[in-house]
Amino acid sequence: MSALIHEQIKERLLEDKISHILTVSAAGDINAVRAALEDGEIQLSCKDAMGRTPMHVAASEGHTKLVEFLLEQKADPAAKDKYHNT
């Protein structure tokens, strides 16, 4: 397998993990967020194409317990998305 293909696969897997953590953040699933962060491949500061972090998504969906958890984990409450929203 060429290095380029290997890198593309690795990048796609990372995108899938970011998509997953944002999906479970939207659902307010603290345990799933915790599990997604455990392997260390993604960070609390990970962003999707719109620049949204797990904190953006959890807060926009009103999941206060998850927002508190993310803050305890040192998520940046001042992170800005593509539209400069925090």
The low-confidence parts are: none
Helix content: 55-70%
Q: Average pLDDT, to the nearest integer?
A: 93
- Percent in strands: under 5%
- Alpha-carbon distance between the termini? 41 Å
Shape: globular
Provide a count of the helices: 4
What does this structure look like?
This protein has helices at residues 3-27, 30-38, 54-60, 64-72. It has 86 residues and is an all-alpha fold. α1 packs antiparallel against α2 and α3 runs antiparallel to α4 (64-72).
Keywords:
mainly alpha, 86 residues, 0% strand, globular
Care to give the gist of this entry?
The protein is mostly helical. The protein has helices at residues 3-27, 30-38, 54-60, 64-72.
What does the secondary structure layout of this molecule look like, with pairings?
Layout: H1 3-27, H2 30-38, H3 54-60, H4 64-72
